[in-house]
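Incident log, structure service

09:12 report received: a user says their structure output differs between two submissions of the same chain.
09:20 pulled the input from the user's history:
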Amino acid sequence: MTPRLLLLAFGLVLTGALLLIPVDWKRNPIFWQRVMGAVHLPFFAMFVWFLNAANPLGLVLRNQRAAFAVGIAGACVIGTELLQPLTGRQESLIDLRNGVFGVIVAALFLLRRQEAQSVLRLATKLSLTVMMCGIALYPSWLEYRGILWRLKNFPLLGDFESPDELRIWVDTGVGDSDVFRTFIEPSSKYAARGEGSLRLKAHPVWLWATVRFLASDQDWRG
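09:34 re-ran on a clean worker, output below:
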């Protein structure tokens, strides 16, 4: 087996393992799920670069190599989200979007790279890259703000004066049906302190409403 084929095989096996093996986060699971979703962007950008450098089987001509890598990586983005439920991972449109962003970022810098790069063109590419990275990271930032609120206000569970708290109080339910779900929303009624409270809404068929508090990393001893 040639070094090129060894490199390609290793890269594909590593990619499959990273994308399909289930991961169970014990602490702050929602935050880490959002982080892993954002990681899809640089991961697939690097995957495009890898395919372009490896030139699978050496069959792709140099001028078409980047386009081939972009196309294969794009197919892998879609295929990954279709296969993940079969391996215990959860499919996600956000992960799909971020993966597509990663392919686009790589394409911006690989396709037509032989042409002279004007300052305007380079600035446009960098601006688009920064914008897509910001969109990918925003959900993680929101979850992290909830974690910061929890750490700062410990041992207070909540006073619902800040929207950041809705990141550590989550609705619960059974399955995907709205009939068996509890929905939460901020309210100004019956506030015990300040002006805020939390309202729980359940479907009339469901006899009780439940909510979950994400208390990761909190040490209540003493």
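09:41 both user submissions now match this output. Likely a transient worker issue. Closing.
09:42 reviewer note: The radius of gyration is 23 Å. The chain has a mean pLDDT of 84.
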